[in-house]
Request: fold
Amino acid sequence: KVDFSGPTHKVQIDEEKWIEANAVIICTGASAKWLGLESEQRLNGFGVSACAVCDGFFFRGKEVAIVGAGDTACEEALYLSKLATTVHMIVRKGPDGMKASKVMQDRVKQASNIKIYWNSETVEVVGANKVEAVTIKDNQSGTVATVPVAAFFVAIGHQPNSDIFKGWLDMDEAGYLQTVPGTSKTNIAGVFAAGDVQDKNYRQAVTAAGSGCMAALDAERYLGAAGLH
Ligand SMILES: Cc1cc2nc3c(=O)[nH]c(=O)nc-3n(C[C@H](O)[C@H](O)[C@H](O)COP(=O)(O)OP(=O)(O)OC[C@H]3O[C@@H](n4cnc5c(N)ncnc54)[C@H](O)[C@@H]3O)c2cc1C
Reply:
């Protein structure tokens, strides 16, 4: 819990101890959404990944699968198509139900090495110690196919860890904290945000670290200007 109502800011730790501070930097990150399959969690880090631009390179020259149908999934499928021999893209709905913008859909459909499985869902990620295949079910025909792949990418969205700031801080419709452009300042003086919790575009370690540095400098300047440091 947090309480940003007073002149000093309060943050509760481990649901018991309250800490008071003149400046707070929020860097709670964003969590990838998962399908919820046991095999997906067991093989996480062994071919299962939620970040194609981070881990795609390890599967250069191999066949990979990706699940998702939004702009991010399309962007990641296109990125993978430049590295992998074939990208098997699993889409739960049909061509008319895809969430991605038309321009991204068209780019994916036109890529010669992206094979789209419409109206399909992932039954299981197959492999004892690393990803070896993915089992895909066509929900219209009921057909189940096992496709050999070396990696399985999940691109069904991220959830910014910002619930505890609801009602205090400005956030977009997805829950990403909003900062004054070019700074880490939130709508409350002395409260700053850095990293993935305020960045739905890049979500990379290096950008998170950079914005963390910005937040540290912003906080130091804030404390200095207020005569608190
Ligand atoms: C599979 C994968 C591979 C990746 N590979 C790369 C890569 O190769 N290169 C790269 O640049 N980036 C990579 N990334 C992205 C990178 O990990 C993130 O961009 C980066 O870690 C974001 O840093 P952050 O500090 O904002 O958040 P995080 O690293 O997510 O840290 C947030 C922390 O806040 C904690 N937290 C959340 N809520 C609360 C709360 N209420 N109270 C207290 N603590 C809380 C969390 O437990 C966590 O420890 C990868 C991401 C994934 C998922």
